[in-house]
Every structure is written in structure tokens, then in C-alpha cells.
Amino acid sequence: MSEKHTLVIVVGSVREGRFGPVVASWVAEQAREHGGFEVEVVDLAEFEIPLSLPASSPKYAGDAYPRPESMAPLTSRLAAADAFILVTPEYNHSYPASLKAAIDWHFTQWTAKPVAFVSYGGAAGGRHAVLHLENVLTELHAVTIRDGLAFPNYFTTWQDGQPLDPAAPGYAKTLLDQLAWWAAALRSARETVPYPA
Ligand SMILES: Cc1cc2nc3c(=O)[nH]c(=O)nc-3n(C[C@H](O)[C@H](O)[C@H](O)COP(=O)(O)O)c2cc1C
Predict the structure, then answer these.
(1) What is the 69 CA–ligand 1 centroid distance (Å)?
(2) CATH fold of 5-192, please?
(3) Which PANTHER family match (predicted)?
(4) What does the pLDDT read at residue 62?
(5) Residues 6+ apart with CB under 8 A from 160
(6) In angstroms, what is the span from residue 103 Cα to ligand 1's centroid?
(7) pTM to 2 decimals?
(8) Given the CA of residue 126, which atom of ligand 1 is nearest to it?
(9) Domain-by-domain residue ranges, the chain?
(10) What confidence tens digit (pLDDT) does each residue in 78-107 have?
């Protein structure tokens, strides 16, 4: 087993003028400095992700699931991931529809893999969004990471692409340490015994 795990950092918002890529870029920098991961940033704005789904469920269709051809690079990157960080804002006390659509077009790509969260927003720092994501990802048999990062009122607490809180890189390291532990444990388990989903 190679020492580095493939980490996919998902930019969950696709809104015009969004802040998501700034947060994702900082998270990617922390993950590269951590050293335990091959880091990829996947920006949902770069893919066609229709709200209308096929009749069948991706849970049972496997590779035969009829996704739009242009979604193939997204699907293969999710499939190749050993670990995920979802970077999410909070929209009306939840996470954006773009992220839900990307999740729902897939199933096995999330199964038996660890998922961590970095959120941002107003006073609540995106925590409502993360609570909802934890619930959703459990249905997909993903393992959610307890320690996340939440950035409340990011419009006053970030400058030049960096959070002003000097403790933030330390929180990121804790998240990444936990994510790396789960990535190794679950990758080894997936390679040893097929997950009984
Ligand atoms: C439709 C919408 C709903 C929002 N609802 C909330 C909310 O419930 N709580 C919150 O803290 N911020 C809320 N916000 C503020 C967003 O967290 C903030 O605009 C953030 O920048 C959005 O992320 P983005 O720039 O990556 O799209 C909302 C923003 C939008 C566009």
C-alpha cells in the first residue's frame, strides 16, 4: 500500500461570486503540508450535474448507472478517492443543492470511505450544513470525521485567502490526522474484504 492517500477536496458551492474556492484552496495547502495525501481539488462548478436523476438508483446500478458523459471525470475522481473533505457553505440552514446533486448521482464512490467537513457561513459557520451532511453520508455508508473546521462570519475572519485565526492550521492538522488514520484503516479493510453494503 502506498503511504499517501488520495484526498479529494470538493468545492460544494457553484454560486456566482462564491467564496468556496478560497476556502478549498487553503484546505488543499494544509493537506499538502500535512504530507499524508495526494491532494486533488474537485470543483463542482466544472461539471454538468442535472437535478433530474435516472429512474434507477446508483446504489444497485454500479458502473452501468446512466450518468451524463460529461460527468465521467467527476465520477472517476470520486471513485479513486481514499478520503474526502467537503467544503461547504450554509444555505438556509443546510448545504447547497449542488452538493446534494453530486452526492445523489453517486453511491458506491462514497461507501466505506472517510469524509471530513470544512464549513463557512454567517454566525453558525456552516454547522447546520455539516449536521445535515453527516446524516446524508451515513446513508451512503461513509464514515464521517468528528473534528471539522467551521469558519463563522468568514467575511470578517479571512484575509488574502487565509483565516485570521492563528489556531486554524492546528485544527486543520487534527482533522487531517484523523482523516489519514481512517483513510488507511478503511482502504486496508476495503482491499481485504468486500464491504457488505
Ligand atoms: C441562498 C443563501 C442562503 C443562505 N443562508 C445562510 C444561512 O442559513 N446561514 C448562514 O450562516 N449563511 C447563509 N448564507 C450566507 C452564505 O453562507 C454565504 O453567502 C457564503 O458566502 C455562501 O458560500 P459561497 O460564497 O461559496 O456560495 C446564505 C447564502 C445564500 C446565497
Answers:
(1) 31
(2) Rossmann fold (3.40.50)
(3) CHROMATE REDUCTASE, NAD(P)H-DEPENDENT FMN REDUCTASE LOT6
(4) 84
(5) none
(6) 20
(7) 0.97
(8) 11
(9) 5-192
(10) 999 999 999 999 999 999 999 999 999 999
